[in-house]
User: Which sequence fits this backbone?
């Protein structure tokens, strides 16, 4: 094989994976080139690259899925090689061929291997010939009741896009249509296929790495069973609870699959393991996986560096892979609301920070100040923990997520923490139905203390209005606060300017002041909290009628309270543009929106109004749906596409559709009125004597 030396590299992707590849390139001294859509003009991966090339437009079909534009960008920037990342064109054989035809080095497997594995149906035929166990496909056209439940999957890609579970034959045509549309949007190919759906199966995969010198490594197993909408949420390596014979069988099958297609580079062979412990081949992803960091942590490798090494024609460092050490767990942090059908969230991410500790790693695609838009996947970052044992790694990751500072749109952070601490996860009782069974409990209001957090927010706001530059201490230190200190806190620039500090009229009173009140709405639960406080002669605000609470220190960004003898600290971050406050404590985090004293009547909507939960595109409405139609509670009425996923808008009650404003193909903003359903009146009670 010809040897190359890669001096500059274009990543044909965006977000977290582009930043991840750039990190290795910097370590190796390789110049980095980014591509970006108009929506990503100021994205983190663009800021981190040495060079960047614009792809005009915003939709993936116009930008990141345009292989011709990406190749032209690589040539324009003088890139020597192209890394596809994951998703988009990463498993597109035509794109890989176009890269090589343009004289560029392709950091990926051979085109033939991609072609053989790109179609999941052809891949299964090939694996059957290689002796790899698999599930037999089902023809949707001839499927019967005995074939249910069925799993529909996109033939041209993974990541859960285009995937549907069908439990009733009557739903099969509609789900086929929806799966095909979603697959076409994500991969540019609407082909889908069906196979039996295994209840309570585990998603277990094997990382492979192969070179052009006949060396193929099987780098252990990963368990990726915790999934929402067939997309992975928490992954770990090695997969727990597998006996040695099953692990060996999976390793052998993965190596056989790689050798069967002459594979080179990093790839993943995915299996479904039944509750009885029988493995079935699912697919081979001819690319780097989102969850690759857990394998890197356990084996002490940089898989991206190995990809580049193999692409340069070099052999793997040794015939056998290194020995694994310890356990690693990864959690995907999404801007989404799990309690509301996993609705993606948009807006400005004000802060994203994870504690810095040994064994922790953060792979992020966003940072504080970035905007989360509607065009792409809502994953913000991945947090990875590595420790000697599984319980230690799980504990470290849960604690890191719990203490993370994440301010802005709603995220799945709390769900991740609760999932990691769930008894079934702790005991490694894992399967793909975990969230189907436990989601309600995992998203229920927790045991935290939002009322006290709201009190801390109100006290911080009060100090911010009167003493923004200096902490005001009370309690045991109240006598140390002098009038001059308070005046300087009110006007911090006065002392620097010279002369005595001015004292504002009314700063001191001979009578106790009446309580002031603040109202907050907690997010995302919507619970309201009213806080009463007053500012006594010391000038430091204190809670009103709150026995057992003592204020020890208060300033605009930090409040220390003593609650029944226990000292607790609260960090407060304000977003003045949205009247929102974020309160972080060692055990929990809260988001509050300040409410006006009086409600604006214009904010009310008519009963039965269906509002767009996010910005997006109306892709279709239910067949025959029009004003005057009768609808049933829970009936899907409108399909909205946002962040590369389809979201159903359901009828809130049985009744009559009195208005339909949703038009297929139209863009809508969050809160836009889509339709109105007038609920059927309750039947009048029948008099007892008549009955």
Assistant:
């Amino acid at each position: 094989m010809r040897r190359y030396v890669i001096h500059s590299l274009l990543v044909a992707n965006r977000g977290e994976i582009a930043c991840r590849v750039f990190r290795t390139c910097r370590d190796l001294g390789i110049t980095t080139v980014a591509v970006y859509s108009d929506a990503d003009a100021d994205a983190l991966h663009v800021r981190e690259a040495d060079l960047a090339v614009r792809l005009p437009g915003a939709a993936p079909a116009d930008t990141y899925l345009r292989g011709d534009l990406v190749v032209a960008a690589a040539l324009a920037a003088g890139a020597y090689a192209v890394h596809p990342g994951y998703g988009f064109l990463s498993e597109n054989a035509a794109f890989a061929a176009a890269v090589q035809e343009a004289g560029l080095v392709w950091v990926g497997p051979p085109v033939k291997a991609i072609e053989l594995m790109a179609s999941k149906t052809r891949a299964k035929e090939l694996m059957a010939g290689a002796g790899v166990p698999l599930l037999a496909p089902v023809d949707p056209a001839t499927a019967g009741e005995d074939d249910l439940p069925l799993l529909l999957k996109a033939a041209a890609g993974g990541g859960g896009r285009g995937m549907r579970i069908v439990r009733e034959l009557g739903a099969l045509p509609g789900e086929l249509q929806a799966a095909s549309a979603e697959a076409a949007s994500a991969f540019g190919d609407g082909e889908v296929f069906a196979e039996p759906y295994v209840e309570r199966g585990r998603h277990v995969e094997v990382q492979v790495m192969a070179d052009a010198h006949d060396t193929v490594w099987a780098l252990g197993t990963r368990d990726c069973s915790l999934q929402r909408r067939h997309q992975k949420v928490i992954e770990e390596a090695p997969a727990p609870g597998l006996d040695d014979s099953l692990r060996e069988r999976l390793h052998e099958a993965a190596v056989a699959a790689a050798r069967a297609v002459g594979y080179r580079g990093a790839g993943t062979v995915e299996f479904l393991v039944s509750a009885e412990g029988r493995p079935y081949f699912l697919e081979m992803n001819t690319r780097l996986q989102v969850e690759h960091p857990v394998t890197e942590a356990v084996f002490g490798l940089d898989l991206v560096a190995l990809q580049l090494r193999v692409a340069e024609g070099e052999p793997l460092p040794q015939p056998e892979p290194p020995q694994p050490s310890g356990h690693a767990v990864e959690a995907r942090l999404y801007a989404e609301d799990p309690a509301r059908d996993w609705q993606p969230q948009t807006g400005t991410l004000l802060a994203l920070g994870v504690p810095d500790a040994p064994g922790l790693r953060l792979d992020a695609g966003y940072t504080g100040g970035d905007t989360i838009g509607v065009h792409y996947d809502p994953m913000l970052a991945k947090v990875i923990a590595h420790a000697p044992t599984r319980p230690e790694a799980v504990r470290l990751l849960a604690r890191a997520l719990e203490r993370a500072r994440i301010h802005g749109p709603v995220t799945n952070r709390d769900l991740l923490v609760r999932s990691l601490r769930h008894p079934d996860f702790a005991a490694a009782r894992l399967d793909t139905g975990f969230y189907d069974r436990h989601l309600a409990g995992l998203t229920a209001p927790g045991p935290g203390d939002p009322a006290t957090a709201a009190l801390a927010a109100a006290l911080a706001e009060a100090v911010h209005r009167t003493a923004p530059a200096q902490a005001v201490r009370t309690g045991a230190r109240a006598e140390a606060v002098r009038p001059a200190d308070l005046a300087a806190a009110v006007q911090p620039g006065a002392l620097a300017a010279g002369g005595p500090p001015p004292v504002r009229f009314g700063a001191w009173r001979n009578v106790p002041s009446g309580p002031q009140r603040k109202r907050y709405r907690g997010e995302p639960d919507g619970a309201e909290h009213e806080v009463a406080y007053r500012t006594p002669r010391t000038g430091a605000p204190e809670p009103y009628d709150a026995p057992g609470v003592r204020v020890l220190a208060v300033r605009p960004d930090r409040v220390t309270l003593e609650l029944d003898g226990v000292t607790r600290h609260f960090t407060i971050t304000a977003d003045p543009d949205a009247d929102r406050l974020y309160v972080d404590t060692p055990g929990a985090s809260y988001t509050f929106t300040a409410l006006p004293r009086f409600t604006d009547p214009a904010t009310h909507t008519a009963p039965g109004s269906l509002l767009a939960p996010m910005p997006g595109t109306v892709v279709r409405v239910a067949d025959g749906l029009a004003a005057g139609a009768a609808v049933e509670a829970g009936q899907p009425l409108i399909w909205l596409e946002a962040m590369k996923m389809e979201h159903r808008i359901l009828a809130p009650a049985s009744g009559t559709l009195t208005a339909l404003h949703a038009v297929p193909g139209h863009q809508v903003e969050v809160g836009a009125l889509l339709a109105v359903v007038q609920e059927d009146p309750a039947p009048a009670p029948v008099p007892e004597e008549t009955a």
User: Anything to note?
Assistant: Residues 638 and 649 are 5 Å apart (CA to CA). The longest helix spans residues 244-260. Residues 604-679 form a domain with the OB fold (Dihydrolipoamide Acetyltransferase, E2P) fold (CATH 2.40.50.100). The chain has 17 helices and 39 strands.
